[in-house]
Request: fold
Amino acid sequence: MAEAELKAPSKGALIVSALVGVALMVGGMYVSKNVKLSFVETLEHQGILLDPGKTLAIIGVFLILFKVLDNFYYAPLRDAINERNNSLEATFTEAAALRSEMDGLKSEYEGRISATEASARAEIQAEINKAQELRRTLESEARAKADEMTRRATDEIAAEKARALGDIRLHVANLTLQATEKLLSENMDNERNRRLIDEFLDKVEVPTA
Amino acid sequence: MLYTGLVVAIVFATLSVAMGNVRSAQKSGTPVFRKLFGGLFEQVYLFVHQMCTGTIGPHGRKYVPMILTVWLIIFVSNAVALFMPTSPTADLSFTLAMALMCVGYVQWEGIRAHGLIGHLKHFAGPKLPPAMFIVTMMIFVIEMISEVMKNVSLSLRLFGNIEGGHLAVTSMNQLGEAFYVPAGALILMPIKLMTVIVQAMIFTMLTCVYLALVTGNEDEH
Amino acid sequence: MTGQGLGIGIGLAALGVGIGLGLIGFSALQGMARQPEAISKLQVVMLIALAFVELVFLLTVFIVPGTMGAFR
Reply:
């Protein structure tokens, strides 16, 4: 600190001020005892007590006091205060350095945390995408299988129906022919009749589906 | 003179105890200025230091010892005036001595800062054209008178406040005399307490202001 | 007769100084309320101004009896 330039007074100044101070004190006492000034009497007449000798003596006392106090008391105490301030300042700078170091560590740590978070997020995203892909393929497979099954079932149904219709048609033709044979007592079963029946059936048949 | 000796003894004793505190703290390794008197002195020192640097500027540091001495003496004297029938600051000779010393020191510092001619020029006010020489002379005379009046005002203010406090206490004590109650001493104690601090501060602060006026001009010119 | 004049004179001085002190306190308080961050500076200046006003009263107190005595 710049205050270090404030030094205690030298021994010479101390001795000189002490001598002057003592001389002033003695002189002041002498003046106080022996010298009567007219303006002091006027002032006393006005109710103001003033003793120039005492004033002189006290100036002497102060001259000594300044130097003595400064030399023997203020200087050491000032040094102690400065030392305290310096140590405090050192502590503060140390604390500031520690804090900046801690800040660096903290920012590094935060960066690492954010990096980890980003990678974790990317991984999660990738997993989600994979799962969605899987779901989509599974779905399409299942749908294809179901479609296949439906189609097969429909085909079977259609084949069954066609067979059943053929059966019924044959049956009906036979029945008709038998009934007509019974009715006419002769064999009607020839190619022409069968065709006729078929044509008739085609006419009556309700179109299915 | 007896009370002056008492005040000086109190100042010396307080400072000795403070330094003893600091020394013992330094020796034992405990934090300095933890003890009562050491901490007290530190606070006073920092207060005066702040007053000097705040009023005079950065170079006000070198006036700290002088201002601190004056502050301590005035403060202790005023504190003595709280409890004793008289005190050094209730004596015009004492306050006049202090005022003379402070104003004289201000002159000395002004001469040291600007030289004798520069310091005298400082009294002559702003630079005016030669035709206004008579005005400059008048300003010079008025400034000289105000310089002398600084002594009177500094000393009379301190003396009047402390002595006036004493007189007020005596005359108010006469009010309570019939009931054997020291009315003035009780009622006026808070006001006197404030006076103790404020007067010590004003005396030193005004000295600082005078010092600043005399020494601080080199930045402006 | 002189005693009464003295009392009246000192009373008048006290009146004026009281007004002056009040004005200083008033404006200082106002400034402090408007700018609380300037309180420390304002306090110091206020105390100095108070000291100067107070000085007028002290001068009156110490000079009036003297002049009274001189003119008697």
